[in-house]
Amino acid sequence: MNAPSFYNEWAWDFVASTMHRNPRLVEWLLSVAQRTPYEHLGKYMQRWWLLPPAVKPEHPEFRSIRNQVRRLRRNARLHLIMRADQEPYPHNHPWEFRTLVLRGWYVEELLLKDGTVTRNVVWAGQSYKRTPDQFHRIVAVAPGGVLTLVLHRTKKPTSWWGFLVNGKCIHWRIFQEIMAAGRGWDPSIESQAATYAELNSTSFRLSGDN
Fold it and tell me: Which of 5, 111, 134, 142 could form a Cys-Cys staple with 104, CB 3.0–4.6 A?
């Protein structure tokens, strides 16, 4: 790790640790975010916008201070993760993002580029960055869940996201259809999958991913 990267990560850990040590601030941020729910994911995760995407010029709140901040092309959400991932395969995300753990903890399995898997406990007060070519799974969550602050740019996703099966990234919609039908893995599906090298190729990007 080079010096700029080290100090950048140290700074983010300092911010996460400071927020974790200030529960009143965390509760206030949660109360603000809960006014703008995002798409909840059942018993797995609840999500709220802290800094949602900017509204269009015709919207009555276009000139508001909050919306001008949104136009900086940064989004922020609070995620309450209530259980571990149930899928047996790791998944990626369609954009680069940063997570700050505000409350609770979870155990994460992270697939490294050499094919090995690391397992780490991510504690409240810690921060990390993930990129679209990284695959992970949450395998355990603190009782009562874990509250995280997630930051990412508002630009279009770098790639679509999915689950890594036999070295191939299966688009999440296709994967869910397979799991819902109880079909199991079908080698013919590989024609609709991407390898690591292909993941960010335009030919594998599908519309509607965010």
Answer: 142
pLDDT tens readout for residues 54-112:
556 666 766 666 655 555 567 899 999 999 999 999 999 988 899 999 999 999 999 99
Q: What domains does the chain contain, in order, with CATH numbers?
A: 3-153 (2.60.120.10), 162-204 (no CATH)
pLDDT surpassing 70 at residue 25: yes
* Tens digits of residue pLDDT in 108-125: 999 998 889 999 999 999
User: Does an H or E element contain 120, and which?
Assistant: strand 117-123
The answer for residues whose C-beta is within 8 angstroms of residue 50's C-beta and 6 or more apart is: 29, 32, 33, 36, 76, 77, 78, 149
CA distance 29 to 23: 10
Spatial contact of 192 and 171, defined as CB atoms under 8 Å apart: yes
d(CA 60, CA 37): 20
Concatenating the DSSP letter of every residue in 63-91 gives TSHHHHHHTTTEEEEEEEE-S---SSS-B
Name 108's Cβ contacts closer than 8 Å, sequence gap at least 6: 119, 120, 121, 122, 136, 137, 138, 139
Share the mean pLDDT of the chain.
Answer: 80
Q: Decide if 139 contacts 85 (C-beta within 8 A).
A: yes
Residue listed under structure tokens 């024609």: 191
Which of 65, 66, 29 has its CA nearest to residue 48? 29
209, 157 Cβ separation under 8 angstroms: yes
